[in-house]
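Protocol step 4 of 6.
Sequence for ROK family protein (Kineococcus gynurae) entered exactly as in the expression construct, tag removed. Do not edit the line below.
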Amino acid sequence: MVAAVSSWRADDGPGRAVELITSGRARTRTALAEALGLARSTLGQRLQPLLASGLVLESEELVSSGGRPSRALRLNPRAGVVISIDVGEERTRVAITDLDAAILAERVLTLRLDDGPEELLETISTAARQALQESDLLGVPVAGIGLGLPAAVDFRAGRVSGWSIMSGWDGFDIRGHLRRTWQVPVLVDNDVNVQTVAEHHRFWPQVSHLFYVKIGTGVGSGMVIDGCVNRGAQGVAGDIGHAHVGGHGDPQCRCGNRGCLESLVGGWALARDLRGDSHPQMHDARDVARQAKLGEVDAVTRLRAAGRILGEAVAFSANLLNPDVIVLGGLLSASGDHLMAGVLESIYQRSLPLTTRKLRIVPTGYRSRSGIAGATYLVRDHVLDPARLDRLLGAGLGPFAVDEN
Ligand SMILES: [Zn+2]
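Step 5 output, structure tokens:
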């Protein structure tokens, strides 16, 4: 633990100042002094470590806040870069972003997930270093690493927990391993939770209850409750992909069980069904999405039916969670309106009128790379946490130092 040597209170420290600046509630020294209840000179002391570290900039732009115009304070998105990693079943993206999730460099890798954690993390670290080098960013501080994995993740521990398609990762200390190379904060989460974070931050920050469903090769979901992602006790909250859905023949699932939602509507399952219907070219979610986009009748019919089954599971979740908005993401959600049409059909049939009265059901606003954006937002939320910033700056450390709290 980092010992604080300052006498800041939680509600008037530099962390709180950053929060007011980033939320737009205070953009000048005058407004900040008023919001924090501080004299101008005391405020200057609070701002000093923020300005010195480059995390906050005082720009030439003048803002009028009633009295005489004063210079604008803003978060500097280039104060540090984030290494954002989206590990996928088919490809892995390693990106360097700024603190606003703008991508500055990117590498796309084809990794075999069963190669095991050490080899994969080394490959990822090498790709990140090359991306930093090529984009001339080696001198910029790394604010942190955000990593999304197609597995159940114990978010606090930074480890995979339990069964996943990533064999050999269960219990492996991912955070510890990456920290040996990078010495920066490392945030590891399930890929669907990461996408949920991205969706909420970017498109629905004002919404308190959001349910996100990803339908690609696999199926998963994440939820925002009272403004925060809810991960549950073991990090698998909202994983509807392997919940049983009866009445559709109980096919074999990848997890070993039968009749899981994913075994009925996941991209691999649809490809399996269509292949059986004499479409030998169907191998994965991408093939299904491509054929549906082209209007191929069997693919469209299958996708719409999958939408109805998915809608049954989503309706159940909607009744349980009463969200403001349900967002549909993933490769298959981007293959035309067929899936969404099926989902809507089931949800309005099966949900309580009170649940659906104000409910919005929308496709994701991301065309791609929500996993990268979400990984950056995880790091950003962590490093800008007011209590954490107060602890580190109070101890004379930089804003991107490692803090075990
Ligand atoms: Zn399953």
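Step 6, annotate. Residues 242, 253, 255, 257, 260, 262-263 surround zinc ion (CB under 6 Å).
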